[in-house]
Records
---
Amino acid sequence: MHRQFLGKFNELVRISDLSSFTYGDSLRDSIVKDIYRAAEEVTKKVVTQKSQRKITFDKKIDDLLTSKIFGYPIMILLLGLVFWITITGANYPSQMLANLFFWLEGKLTYLFMVLGSPQWLHGILILGIYRTLAWVISVMLPPMAIFFPIFTLLEDLGYLPRVAFNLDRLFKKAGAHGKQSLTMSMGFGCNAAGIIACRIIESPREKLIAILTNNFVPCNGRFPTLIALATIFVGGLVASQYRSLAATLFVTLLVVFGIIVTLIVSWVLSKTILKGIPSSFTLELPPYRKPKIGRVIYTSLIDRTIFVLGRAIAVAVPAGLIIWILANITLGDKSILSHSAAFLDPFARMIGLDGFILMAFIIGLPANEIVVPIIIMSYMSKGAMLELESLLEMQRLFIDNGWTFLTALNVMLFSLFHFPCGTALWTIGKETGSLKWTMLSALIPTVIGIAVCFIVTQGARLLGLVF
Amino acid sequence: MGLTCESCSRGVLKKKFNLRCGEKFVIALAGNPNVGKSTVFNELTGLKQHTGNWPGKTVVNARGNYRYEDMEFVLMDLPGTYSLLASSVEEQVARDFICFGQPDVTIVVVDGTCLERNLNLVLQVMELTHNVVVCVNLIDEAERKGIFIDIKALEEELGVPVVGTIAREGVGLEELKRRVLNVALNIENLNPKKISYSKPVEDAIKGIEPEIDRILKGKLNSRWVALRLIDGDNTIVNSIYEHIYDKKTLEIEGEEVLVNA
């Protein structure tokens, strides 16, 4: 039976070979032409075109947004505008949420006392888990709830392909694929999503470059860290009415720096371990579409914000627990946490951080959003029990623990350049199917981060710059 | 349920392709990139596959279900393609699914603002299968650009059901579901427009079509296979081997719709 089938299949192969031999490519053009002609005929019969006004209007906008002179400034301006709206808009609700959470904390503590629960239980549940949760929600939720919808709005409008169009030339020069600018943009939302989006790049070489460099743009887990630190330490340098503006400028600068590093690393990769010529592609500029506001808000709030926040909470709860335990079990005269931090401290100091910060980055591997909460918890567990009611309190806590402008700068830089979070690494492993590339994707940004922080720190110290 | 794959004409074939269809109709969703396929998909299934205004947004084949008139439909969101000539991975994936997955109905979503280019794909899909419903999406955008499409005339020209939609606002989707059901039940009057090719091509088709028909025994549209062969497209021979002789199971499960992607 099977043989009979195969016999027939061989006949098909014979016909195929014969046709290839007889016609080669000679009829292909004619076939395609006939399809086009048929489509044209049908179209002529059913379509009436009244005016061209809208099209020329779209084209005018495109000429501006993708122009050689205005393209980049508009892009950076829009990026800055998004950050500015996020930073100014997030201030007030953050404060409100924080007040609410710490009012509730008081009530919960009271409840624990009334019930006569042991000290350690209150410690674990309230000071460990609840505080971390409260911090994650009050600091992360407002910026995400503002940033995601605006970003989705830009995507829905059709601005992203214009960004890709603008950046295409740069990525080509870096030996990478122009579509990488799209996957990079997706990385602003979530690096894991950006890495999955790399599937749109067909060439395996360029796909790998895109995957390996996706982590250089800060995702939403890292934006709140950047925004909070920039507001405190950069905004703190100027008069209070310019605070948000200064913070915005700085965050924008950081992101642009991240993009530059993306290009440099892509270039180095394409000249060394991933050699090759960039393949060309046609990117069609889609029409501008009026976004569906309701849908945008729904998808960006429910699907993205709640998803990212949910993940942060899921990770923060066990992390809060572990930190509290580490901070409260003592070996000799110090807690385990202090021992580990002391071990990391000499190295951390060289790159302008301290042992607690470096450890927070390591413990924060599952999700970037919990790095700052871990730092806060580590500091608080050392004795000074502060209620973090506002960014001002946070600033005081950091300064009390020896932070300077340089420390904050290095934390922001290291946040931008370090190993991808657990989810992103897992996604890279799945997409590349190779342990080697996954390891490399963690190694490259970490090495860069250490190098950048080292140069900044040592440079500042050498020049005697005191911040 | 009485009206299932068993009762439709290709029910037996489906078993041969090991397609897990159960008692559901399988619907393929094809179209050029960025015409709103994912939006149609979301509106029909109630899922929230992320949509975005850029071509190639859909990188995974999403699968979803919907019910209409007490019947179950499995909807496959195929990658966006400009043709079925298998010159890229996406095109081959889309072609193989329509070809060997034997969906009960193939919906081709087209962009009302540039109908002509989109019709190329429609005509190619119609060469492959007769069970086509054309969904002219973005008619509001087209009208704003001063482009008016006579849906009725288009339906007559193409010989398959044509529905005008504004998927983002849910306009026309009831009608789309109704026509899809009709085609699945074989109660639409289908008379798909055939592309007539130049004489050398038609002669070449005539030369090999009967033989191909004898070999494939109606498993595939022999005229279409003949066209691919004289076109010099060898990928179809491999696909036929894989799906018909090797009986490779066609994956219609697709990947889970990623909430955050």
---
Amino acid sequence: MGVPFDLLTPLLVAALGALWSERAGILNIALEGQMLSGALAGVLTFHFTGNLTLALAVAVGFGAVTGLLLAWGTLDLGADPFIAALGLNLLLPALAGWVSFSLFGNLGVIRLTGNAAPVLLGVPLFLILALVLAGATQALLFHTPWGLRIRAAGTGPQLMISRGLDSRVLQRQALAISGALGALAGAFLALNLGAFVPGISAGKGWIALVALYLGMRKPLPVLAACLVLSWTEQASNLLQSFRDLPTGLVLGLPSLLTVVVFVATTAYRKGGRSKVNRPSFPVRKSDNRA
Amino acid sequence: MSKLLVALMAVLILASCAPQASTGPASLAVFIPGTLQGSPIYEMLDAGARKAVAEVPGAIVKTIEGGFNQAQWGEQIATLASSGEYRFIVTSNPAMPEIAAAAAKAYPNQKFLILESYSDNPSYATLAYNHRELSYLHGVLGGLLAAERKAPAVLGLIAGQEYPDMNNAIVPGFEEGLKAVSPEGKVEFRVVGNWYDAAKGAELAKGLFDQGVSVVMPISGGANQGVLTAAKASGRAVLWYDTDGYAVEPGVVFGSGRILQDKAAYELVKKALAGTLEYGKPQMVGFQEGYLDYVTDSPTFVQLVPEGPRQKFEAVLADFRSGKTQLEMPLSR
Amino acid sequence: MNRRTNPLASGIGTLVALGLALGLAVVLLAVLSPNPAGALRAFFWGPVSSGLAWGNLLNQALLLSLTGLAASLAFGAGAFNLGGEGQTYTGGLAALALTLVLPVAWGWGGILAALLAGVMAGALLGGLSGWLKVRFEADEMITTFLLSASAVPFVNAVMTGPGIGAAQSMLIQSRPAPEAFWIPGLLAPSNLHVGILVAVPIVVVFAVLVNHTPWGYRLRLMGRNRDFARYAGISTGIYALVPLGLSGGLHGLAGALGVLGTQHSLVQGFSAGWGWNGIAVALIARSNPWAVLPAAALLAFLDQAGRSVVLQGQFPFQLSALFQACILFFITARRLHGRPL
């Protein structure tokens, strides 16, 4: 059982997207929808142009736009971040279906001809890019002043006000990056498979959130978490060769293993409870945190 | 401002209370348990029904997609039946007779044409396909291909989900066909868990290929795409279950079965509109009746399958078509 | 009372949002439907146009009230219960499994016992996340989600397995419960049944508990400011575990009612989306149990209206989700209806 590269790459990129948003204080729950629409954007572009770079660029651009949309809804319109993201998660697949229908007259599968997933020296290109992105996240978020400011925005308004900084600009940037990464993850997923299938993201946007917290909100542990998650999925697939095991049990195993690992790592973490930035609790009256 | 809103809403609601225009006698609803586009089996259903309707002047047909939530279909069918607008509701799915039972009971004048199902309920006219025969033939071809490649006699079947027809007819039929070629053969069965996770389909296929399987038949909807990609990367063969799939990934799909759902839909609807359809008398059809077939006249098939196995296969197929060989489809009702 | 604490003022704000949302619905239908008049008629009139429609509408509104209350209780105490679907599904299984072993003579006693089993199954699942939070400080947002995600395939395996699986069915479902344990239906063949009416008194009871008792006050304090609650001496352990257990239990009850009242068996996937819908209700109701009933009614109406439009062929299926998304968005975009952030 080797390293499941194909499972790892999209999950890692999506988890990085979750990380950027969470560190800025607005957890991006719309990753699932962004992955799906990014997958379509990438596949469509490659289908019409045959240019891989362009396909990835379009996916990234589209994802950034959806991230900005989420930011607009949350920061400018005051919508609840949870609902706004849920709304995006409903909107994006529907939009994808509409586009698919308008262009091809069907909501179904788009299969690519030609190789959309090049391999460099035996390593898939997408994996290399994903690892580069992880390194970039570590460098930018944790070793630059800008990254510091983004993380400060995520700790709450007091610090920002005292320094005269506007957290909104930073949060907007973070959400744009988050959306771009989510869409890129979807593009990697679909281009690697050489096809777009409605629903191809299959819940990976949610698993990315799990990977984020399992990885203690830092890029390198998140990479480790993604490895663990990919391995449990691979183990589940391999277990299917034992037909005596009920299929339901085998399919539910990855989630169960993940809970155990999550609780174990939380329990043994040094330094007590880590801070978790969730969307503000939707309670009435003074739910005004600013 | 709020007064205006209230007034606007009142006007709208009153306007929507206007009586509906009555429909003519021959009206049909095609209810798709899922979505139309991207599902060949439902596209054929719709096409066949529409073709029959087009031949009858004044007949109306409406296609309604029910979405993927099985638990909602009963409610939707009941709503369609309660409206009284449609003389016939046409649909296709083995579970539909049960799902529509409450509606059939509450609205006894509503007639249902349900393909891919088997029921003697007097409100229904049903037609079921002999999946055992179809998968048997796939098993035969798979076995011949594996033998040709000097690979172990193990075939792979990747399903979206487990359901009665899959477990009782398709998997056993597949294995029987394989054993007819290689008596020691075995089928490796895998389940994706849904009908769209192409990445998981690819992983499951890769696992099978690592075990030495050389031919795989995916019946998993969108997840088939992952299986195709994995097969292409490993140089293995794929059997496409119920529609012509040679062009989907040239060089990877070696055989395609066919369910003639459009023919069945056309004939059923035509009889219904003419008033000659018999209700409460379920039909089971296979190769002999002409509703199941295998696509052997494709140049891809001829090119990919060497002559020896191809002729053996076509002999078996001919026996099924003529009715010389017949298999019984287990009915778990 | 200032505008924020005046329930009437905030109610008007929500009504304005509702008006805007409906206005948007009208615009979308008019623009995107091939037959705007027919679409509008289907939208506004469809959900109430017949006994069947009313039955389905009421059933959905009441079910949403239960799941909305479940989510509200969790949110109100500062916890995120993302495992609603799994808790509902497990509750349904527990209820059904019990009916298969109880003596038929129990009648209504059996029904109550089965409902209780559903509640307990859901409560255990939710409470497990609560316990993990208390004992290991494991974030319940993740654990509820993961436990639910593992519960669903497990339930699928059990409900089709020996003893419980349906032998004679093409649907992926369990055996039907004995008829003695079927909750009587209303407005047949709709989904409505007598049992679901219990949702109303339950919501009222919790509304009173949460808003007018010391216990409820402490709960809300946990949701508002956990550190202050701790300083005030409130045992954060119990007040973390209990809301999650309650939330899970209510989800389980919804599942049990659905199984015993509507389908009379456990049908695979029946609880799909129920968790999220409950969360949407809670968010619109701002976790206030009093507002859960109207919020649930609103969402149920919008859902049935959207389905009615598609069912009458007046709107392409794939756009109904887009529709719902826009509506949700409008209802919570506070700036749009003039409330300060």
